[in-house]
Design a protein that fits this description.
alpha/beta, nine-stranded mixed beta sheet, 13 helices
Length: about 375
C-alpha cells in the first residue's frame, strides 16, 4: 500500500479500508514470486532469472496451497502472482483456483507468450482483478530485442486479444528504457488498440544480486526532462506531501519468493523469515524487520525529512538500501527523478522559479 494518496483518493471507501488495515498491522496484500524461471532474458530485469527447464528450489503445490490457507486465515484479501514467468509452473492454474476458493482476489503478472486459447479460458474463469502483461516496445523489433525472445511481440499481442475477447481486465505495463522512451505515444495507442489500460514506470534498478547491468538501459536525465515535458501539464497542481510516510512498507503487505522466503516488499530484500521454518502468522507478527519498517516515517529519515523536493519524490527505501546500504539514506535514483520533475514544473510555472535544490543534491551531476 502506498501512502501518497490525494485527498479524493483517501475519501474512497477502498482506500479507507487499506488505511484501517495498515493502522492495525493487518495483512492485506501479498506479492508472490512463484518462480524465477523465465522464457525471456530481458536485459533490464532486476531478477537473476533461470532458464525454463532449470531445477529450482520452489515451493511445492501442496506447500503453496497451505500457505494460501494461512494468508486467508490472517485476513489477507489480495494476491499478485508474478515470476519469472508464472505459466512455466504447470500447476499455476491449480494454484490460482485454490486462491479463488479461499476468496482471495488475484492479479496476474505475465509476459503473455504462453497464453493460448485454452489457457485464456481458464484465466477468464478465475475472474482476476487484472492481468498485467509486459510490453517493451511498440513494434516487434524493439520488443523482441529487449526480451531476446523471437516472436515474443507477436505472442504477447495474441494474449491481449485472447483475454480481451473473454472480458478480462487488462493492463499493459512498460518499463521506460532508453530503447523505448521515444515510443511512449505509440505504446499508449497500442494499449488502446488491444483494450488495455496503459501503465509505465521510469525507474530502473540494479539486479537483486547487486549486478548493475540493467542500469545501462535507464533513462538519461535528458530523457527524464523530455518525458516530464510531455507528461506534466501547466494545469497540474503544485504537489503537497501530507502523508507521514514515503510508502506503506511494513504496514499491510509482504513479498514471498519461490522458496518461501518472506520480504517486506519486492524491492527491499531483507529476510523476515521462511514459511518452511515458521508459520506466516508468526513471521507477520514477530519479524523484527517488519516491526522496524512499520515505524519508518519521514521523521526517521535524517536527510529526506528536510528535503525541499520531498513532495516531488517517489522515494523507495529498498532502492536506498541497494544503492547505499542504508534504508534511511536518500535514494539517488529517486532524487534524479525528483530534480527532473522540479525543472519541468518550474518551466511550466507550476513551481516558483527559485524553488530550491536541497543542499545534499547541489553537487550531484545527474546528466
Amino acid at each position: 500500500m502506498c501512502d501518497n494518496a490525494t485527498l479524493s483518493e483517501r475519501d474512497n471507501p477502498y482506500t479507507r479500508i487499506l488505511t484501517k488495515m495498515a493502522r492495525q498491522h493487518r495483512l492485506f496484500a501479498v506479492h508472490w514470486e512463484l518462480t524465477y524461471r523465465c522464457n525471456a532474458t530481458c536485459a533490464h530485469c532486476y531478477l537473476d532469472v533461470l532458464p525454463p527447464r532449470a531445477r529450482a528450489d520452489e515451493l511445492t503445490t501442496g506447500e503453496i496451497k497451505n500457505l494460501l490457507d494461512q494468508i486467508a486465515a490472517l485476513g489477507g484479501l489480495h494476491i499478485t502472482f508474478s515470476g519469472g514467468e508464472i505459466f512455466l509452473r504447470r500447476d499455476f492454474i491449480a494454484i490460482a483456483e485454490h486462491a479463488r476458493r479461499k476468496r482471495l482476489a488475484i492479479r496476474l503478472l505475465t509476459n503473455g507468450t504462453l497464453i493460448n486459447s485454452a489457457r485464456a479460458d481458464r484465466i477468464a474463469a478465475l475472474h482476476p482483478t487484472a492481468v498485467e502483461i509486459s510490453v517493451y516496445g511498440a513494434d516487434a523489433a524493439t520488443h523482441n530485442t529487449i526480451t531476446r525472445q523471437p516472436r515474443s511481440f507477436e505472442l504477447t499481442l495474441r494474449a491481449f486479444h485472447l483475454l480481451r475477447a473473454r472480458g478480462v481486465h487488462l493492463v499493459m505495463k512498460t518499463p521506460l528504457l532508453r530503447e523505448n522512451v521515444r515510443q511512449l505515444g505509440a505504446l499508449r495507442a497500442l494499449a488502446s488498440t488491444v483494450g488495455a489500460r496503459f501503465q509505465y514506470d521510469a525507474t530502473l534498478t540494479a539486479k537483486d544480486n547487486g549486478d548493475a547491468t540493467p542500469l545501462a538501459h535507464q533513462l538519461t536525465f535528458a530523457d527524464l526532462i523530455e518525458l516530464f515535458r510531455a507528461e506534466i501539464t501547466a494545469h497540474d497542481p503544485a504537489p503537497r506531501r501530507e502523508s507521514p510516510r514515503a510508502c506503506g512498507i511494513g504496514l499491510s503487505s509482504l513479498t514471498i519468493d519461490p522458496s518461501g522466503n518472506i520480504f517486506p516488499c519486492v524491492q527491499t530484500r531483507i529476510l523476515a523469515g521462511n514459511v518452511r521454518a515458521q508459520s506466516l502468522k508468526k513471521i507477520w507478527n514477530a519479524a523484527p524487520v517488519l516491526r522496524e519498517l512499520h515505524a519508518l516515517t519521514w521523521a526517521a529519515l535524517p536527510v529526506c525529512r528536510a528535503c525541499e523536493l520531498r513532495s516531488l519524490c517517489a522515494r523507495c527505501h529498498g532502492i536506498a538500501r541497494a544503492e547505499r546500504g542504508d534504508l534511511r539514506a536518500p535514494a539517488r535514483a529517486n532524487c534524479r527523478v525528483a530534480v527532473a520533475r522540479r525543472q519541468v514544473m518550474i518551466e511550466k510555472k507550476i513551481l516558483p522559479p527559485h524553488f530550491p535544490i536541497p543542499a545534499h543534491l547541489q553537487e550531484e551531476n545527474f546528466t
